[in-house]
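Ticket closed. Logging final result for DUF3087 domain-containing protein.
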Amino acid sequence: MKLVEINKARYRKHLNQVIIACVAALTIGSLGIAQLLIQLFPDVDGSHFHWNLTGVVVTCMVIGFVLKKHKAHPFMTEVSYVWDLKQSLNKITRKMAKLKQAAQQGDVDAMTAIQYSYAGSRQLWQLDDNTITMDDLAMWQAELDSLASKYQVEIKAENYRETILKQY
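Final structure:
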């Protein structure tokens, strides 16, 4: 996955609209389904927990299906990009200990994956206004830059491919 610049205002606006729509759909759908099931299959004990749970589960499945089906819609471009970026960064994070160890040995692929992780994290944190950890990221980036300098390699996030992770 390549890193691309996205419009922060559009991203935030569309993300908020998607969240509001999901919350509204979950509320209305789960209550509607639960009430319908309670009317069709009343419980003599008065406990309708299983019908309420069924309403929530069915509605969550419908919301997930709708989001997946409309992921490629132009309205969802920024939201989908961030969703995919987070998944990509999670894959790297799970292998970060091995990547850092390999980077210490001069492995260019490991350094490239780490560089991509840092660049992607920086973009995510700026989009979400999470600037608290930016100082830590700058420190980690300086460490990576010193490793690249030590081994006289040039590392670019654009060179990252997910297949790099298979060797770690």
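The mean pLDDT is 94. No further action required.
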